[in-house]
Amino acid sequence: MMFNSEMLTHKLLREYIEDLVANDQRIDSRGFDEMRPIEVLNGTFTKAEGEAWIKLGKTQVLVGVKADIGEPFPDTPDKGVLVSNTELLPVASPTFEPGPPNENAIEIARVVDRAIRSADAIGLSSLVIEEGKLVYMLFLDMYVLDHDGNLEDALTIASLIALGRTEVPKVILKEDGEIEVKEEKWKVDLRDMPINFTFVKINGKLLLDPILEEENVAEASITLAIDKDRRVCSIQKKHGHFTMEEIINAAGIARDKWPEVAEMIKEVI
Amino acid sequence: MMFNSEMLTHKLLREYIEDLVANDQRIDSRGFDEMRPIEVLNGTFTKAEGEAWIKLGKTQVLVGVKADIGEPFPDTPDKGVLVSNTELLPVASPTFEPGPPNENAIEIARVVDRAIRSADAIGLSSLVIEEGKLVYMLFLDMYVLDHDGNLEDALTIASLIALGRTEVPKVILKEDGEIEVKEEKWKVDLRDMPINFTFVKINGKLLLDPILEEENVAEASITLAIDKDRRVCSIQKKHGHFTMEEIINAAGIARDKWPEVAEMIKEVI
Amino acid sequence: MMFNSEMLTHKLLREYIEDLVANDQRIDSRGFDEMRPIEVLNGTFTKAEGEAWIKLGKTQVLVGVKADIGEPFPDTPDKGVLVSNTELLPVASPTFEPGPPNENAIEIARVVDRAIRSADAIGLSSLVIEEGKLVYMLFLDMYVLDHDGNLEDALTIASLIALGRTEVPKVILKEDGEIEVKEEKWKVDLRDMPINFTFVKINGKLLLDPILEEENVAEASITLAIDKDRRVCSIQKKHGHFTMEEIINAAGIARDKWPEVAEMIKEVI
Amino acid sequence: MPLYVEKKPDVLITEDGVRTDGRLPHEIRPIRMTVGILDKADGSAFIEWGGNRILTAVFGPREVHPKHLALPDKALIRTRYNMAPFSTPERKRPGPDRRSVELSKVIREAIKPAIFVENYPGSVIDIFVEVLRSDAGTRVAGVNAASLALANAGIAMRGLVAACAVGRVENFIICDPNHDEDMWGDADMPMAMLMESEKITLLQTDGPMTDEQFKEALEMGRRCIRFLYEMQKEALKRPYLIVERSVFEQGEV
Amino acid sequence: MPLYVEKKPDVLITEDGVRTDGRLPHEIRPIRMTVGILDKADGSAFIEWGGNRILTAVFGPREVHPKHLALPDKALIRTRYNMAPFSTPERKRPGPDRRSVELSKVIREAIKPAIFVENYPGSVIDIFVEVLRSDAGTRVAGVNAASLALANAGIAMRGLVAACAVGRVENFIICDPNHDEDMWGDADMPMAMLMESEKITLLQTDGPMTDEQFKEALEMGRRCIRFLYEMQKEALKRPYLIVERSVFEQGEV
Amino acid sequence: MPLYVEKKPDVLITEDGVRTDGRLPHEIRPIRMTVGILDKADGSAFIEWGGNRILTAVFGPREVHPKHLALPDKALIRTRYNMAPFSTPERKRPGPDRRSVELSKVIREAIKPAIFVENYPGSVIDIFVEVLRSDAGTRVAGVNAASLALANAGIAMRGLVAACAVGRVENFIICDPNHDEDMWGDADMPMAMLMESEKITLLQTDGPMTDEQFKEALEMGRRCIRFLYEMQKEALKRPYLIVERSVFEQGEV
Known about the structure:
A: alpha+beta; D: 6-stranded mixed sheet
């Protein structure tokens, strides 16, 4: 059944979704721990060094990785730089407004960024050209184009693909301090695959990969990242509250889901 | 007849002006392709290296050119830097508010700037002190003091005068990298005289150099710059729409008007 | 008598305070030229190089001095840098809002800063490590925690204590341009003690060290700083107006009050 | 520190009128238009034109916030032209710069004459033009796509607005300038027309043209715009389908 | 130019589980809580925890400005987490950075489930968390103090929210990570619970943990939070008095 | 990189009291005042004083936007002191800095006591002080001109506000400090008075003065201000005409 959120008030929508959940059902007929189909669009859509436009159900995101070179931070001379930014484009939802990233955009950017860093997925030390002097700087720009829920997971998947595809001209710092940009390419080495999995709690049940309507009526929500060793490497509880058991359950489901998503990502890189 | 815009509602004003135009007349009795008198004030009003306070009818603008030295942009090592900025000062109109330049101020600054650049009126490469290392940077600050319409043309004229008057201490980059500022002066060489001419369309007729009331009721407006070879070198259609013929006509009138304005500018520099 | 400002409208409060003043009394039973008790809290509350948390009656402020090193300003190669900033924290009053410093916060910061500079209390030239190349930069961050009136005086006193307590690692600029940070400490030398004294005028009388309710109903207010030679070294008339005689009186009272406050400051440094 | 350095080509156009990308003066780069690609927007369109990738969306008519901006007798039209950080060779800092502010205004003024604003008093129509990849001509590409997104949103319009740039390289008037021609050409002139009355709603020029060149350029612009208009109509006939043309043979003089 | 350079300690934890500050894995740093230290705020609390110094204040329920933010059926809860320029070894520029924005949200979501928001329709409750000195664990210290300030303000609550961080250093699960462990440890996990139902209202993790480590960490977090809760209750019993504990002997496994 | 380097003069004042610009301690720089030079403002004045060029304009009483700022029982007075980018030897970045914010407040508080604010409840009077060229003493020049612009706008006032700075160089109390004295002098004291009651509405001091010096400075300030007041009255008698005085012989002690 097609569902038009504007046909029902928020209260009716909540009751409708809660009733469904009480009967072990979801609006779009998925199982509670089933993700929506993921589609990776073919084509060149940006001038980034690595990019991915993906659909997670009707949610669409476009991630681009731009590279630059520069000095490392003084306290991490042996590491490159990763800068993550999320834009909730006003094209993606009637509720998004133009302007600098708000609280939600900043949180999402940091949740994706934290998953990648906590697993050191891109090996920040491999971005060093000359220790303390010159490093690659990667700008991970995450664009939300169409918002039908679960931006965290969609952006994480697209970010991993975009990073895994990133190729940059090889750079050498010569002894006289001059910088030589070579024809040859240097490729980001994706060492880990920390994937975020988002759950909402409705009527006391955990639902994986919520659509927008589910997010809007959920009692609570949480995002957990799983690394290639199937360890929890990052968590962000968002609104509401969970019992300890619910969180342990969510981590278990996420662990079970990791291989299929990771496999898909590897295939398209 | 003196005309008080506050005595009439906008609608009445529009009808009044349209009626006049239908009878080949304007509020202030000018011809359709006649400019208001231009007055250049005598005196020193700024600490700029070049300046001009002019009146175009009751419109008053003050333009100052400040000079500095600095590195050229990496992609134009053989060119100096020109930075243009327009401030719609709150003293100039009850509708102007303090704050950073809004859409209109930015557009006007860019329209003046584009005219100057498209004709390379100041010869950007003549601003180079040492290629790739040191250039003059000119800051063209355009201040609107009293707004009675047609800011574009007033600011363009004042900018050309201010640029043509600009004298800067001569600077030398010595071999040891030291910068020497000499007593001697270096003068901006005004190689071209790209003058903007603004038209509004009222009742299907083109009116040159509109006053504020005419701007407020106009169906459409456009600004065209003419260079010393009488070529169109810059256009900005603003609101409304024009036929191709109207635009060709406007360009023709502007071409015809160029010599008298250019002559006036040359005289006062 | 305890006094609850929310029990009375502003008008009643004003009348009440004016009546008191007419009878040579103040809300809190102080004399007109009597300051509230000053308490300096013990403990470490910041990571600053110098700090002071003081109470002036119920007004509480915390001042921290952070040190850094950097280049001097080009026009003062023989002076270190002092940067003063006041934050009217939203915890301090229901009328304070989060955000960048507003007009009042900026004025207060500048009034404290001006007193310190006008007496050259910290000897800006003593902050020079190597003339024209390397100097200490002191950031004087003034935090208002609880606002019961007279922030200027409270912040000035706390600032002088914090500056007087400031110890920074000794820094040397070696011949090869390298910077060496030593174990040894360098201490700010408080050469003067410019103390601000704030008065309000109520019913034509001058009241020293006003509490919040007095500030809110005052006709006029002024802050004067006195240096160790008992000279007026800085003044800021704020709202309202004064006669010349009132100002001379205020300066006289401030001069008389200076020794006791200065003594207290010296003791706690 | 830039990783990529651009160089001016030795020859921008040959004596025979062959351009740096092999096109002749009258040839337009390949174009694809897709309407209705977003679920949450009221209308949307995506245009791929040469190396440009531009996504447009329309929301409204809807309530104005803040309310005091609402106009009593007509719709407020707001337009935002925005370049993605990854749309350029060097990363662009997010947020509006002066060029974006100007282009937002210019695009609004190109589109607005087409909308029956008096049909929607007190409401706002928001038009967003997101440049995902830029390759010369983003503003005219954006106007074409914005026009489609408005139609896709069901906004009442006098007609479509179609747009194309023309330019001058030495003595050649060329249509649809590419990146090289935009950077190092002698003049650039983006145009838009409200079809079918063919009123000019966008016209900018940067660089000198003689009277004859100017007239030739206007005429070539009109021709190109007519071609774009045909594509727009086709794209709207089959929403959600891709309309694509390799247009090297089109727009012949 | 930084005056202070930080170095990673050679050993973060010994084979016997001795930490860089001498604590054992299950030991919490000394804590002092003081309630009601501000005159003008509706409620306030000050917490000293290890080297952290955090001042919290609550204003409200009060009128919302601007009015359109007010919620018809419940209180709006606003939280600001703010670090003082002098709270860190290198001076922090005033104003919110991205981390502060995130923590403001996380703290709000930790506290909000405790408040009977439906008791205060149309009003706002503002919670300010001012970090005067930071030394690892500011967000959980802030949650404890904010909870006290709310109680001090007389806001109707389902219960207190207590919070503590746990972490992993090599194979040790540790409670209340110190600065070194926060910087160079393997995982960090701040937690908060709405007592007494012990619902988790704040949970973040940064750094990998196996299934067993994760469960052990959650369990240790719960134990520490219960200890903090006892201190909070004590602090509220005697407002305006300092509640202080050297808690090295507490929270034993 | 600055093109102009300033140097402190060897002698700021001779033993005979001759200043760097040849004036004696009691002499004021030449002044010109012109009222009503702007067409669109409700009131305006232009002052040239030494090397200062300051344009002031008044708008109002008019409606307040946003409305919630309006005061029910009196007019809101807003003042903006703004320095043009070309008003200083080195270009000043546009927009308010901390000094401008303070001076806007100080000027507002200098002027406000003169206005019958209770005559205009719910409205706003905006006073703009635009510094086109600065040469020491811009704030007092601005106060004089703002006062004229208010009178020119027909705002009901208790009287004019006139202003002048005095200062100390070594043991000399001087009036109307010039640029050198402002930069390298020992004390600077801008003053304004609401005439005719001669109430002080602006008083700032920067630099130490003994009790005697302070009293002498206040007295000299009063004398200068009376002179400025005479010029103001003259300027208002013949609006749109230039009032000009070379005042070297004025203000004698």
